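Regression check, 5-amino-5-deoxy-1-O-phosphono-D-mannitol case 369:
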Amino acid sequence: EKDGYSSFMLKEINEQPSAVEQTLMGRLDPQGNLMLDELRIDESILRAVDKIVVVACGTAAYAGQVAKYAIEHWCRIPTEVELAHEFRYRDPIVNEKTLVVAFSQSGETMDTLMAVRHAREQGAKVVAICNTNGSTIPRESDAVIYTHAGPEIAVASTKAFLSQIAAAYLLGLYLAQLRGTKFADEVREVLHELQQVPAKIQTVLDAAGKVTDLARRMSDADSVLFLGRHVGYPVALEGALKLKEIAYIHAEGFAAGELKHGPIALVEEGQPVFVIVPSPRGRDSLHAKVVSNIQEVRARGAITIVIAEEGDEAVTPYANEVIRVPRTPVLLAPLLTTVPLQLFACELADSKGYDVDQPRNLAKSVTVE
Ligand code: M6R
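Current build output:
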């Protein structure tokens, strides 16, 4: 069943082009408008939404963090992301104008389910983004957008993460189209770019050899840091979580801008630091800021492993290793930049002889609070 791969996780990482493609498929009408028929919530209610709250746990919550950047930009609706177990027990402000979006691969995560129930009790509409047909969270939600990643067997989530992000983009683009925001014009362009993403994920996978070599060389690391800004920040958090979960290595993800507010004190000679670099074609000099963060850690002896866009030569003077990803709009980049981090964790855990698919202490689906 592993199709020749050494683990389900590696197989699922390699299935990501089709997982994303399937999730995006069949959403355009002949005029090129986005259809989201599953979103069976009255359009008048969707137009009146004044706040979106994403609830989720673990990797699904990081997908939610990526979604926040995209949805706020395209829809201009304030969007919060909260761990479901924190949301549930702190008296959150939720009402009929709140749209709660619950991300869950399994659809059975009890913490997320309790948050869904709580939100609906307060009058909010709930949309589930879920990978498992007929599971509990979709059944208890007002609507569901299914991700079509196929069954995910490995405990560590990979293809579900990318598919959740893709589904969240669809939701954001649909709401922008429906509400006619000034960014609605971007919708077609982004949809076009999204269609190109599966092939670009394949390009990243085709270059996996470099990541595999790196993982094998770094198998003795006892701590790895991950830095990113903007949508690269949740990608950094996800890269760190993967390494903790399956390779049992201490790993932390930081917003690169936080470095000088504390974490840079951790950096000493030989400290491996992954940096997720935004496109140099993006706005707000984000790219230059991240390049200077690479310089800062490198000057303190860090070994820098940089994930950067093809053709971005500004990073090379400060990078011990550069892993390239194809060009894509800034907001879509997590669908590409996450992949080398998944591969790194998977190969490193494998080289240590660990059971990649069944890491210690973890269950695929956490059905208790
Ligand atoms: O099934 P869910 O998406 O609701 O699961 C949420 C988390 O338990 C899950 O993402 C967990 O963090 C994974 N082990 C991540 O690899």
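Comparison notes: The chain has 13 helices and ten strands. The first helix runs from residue 8 to 14. No diff flagged against the previous build.
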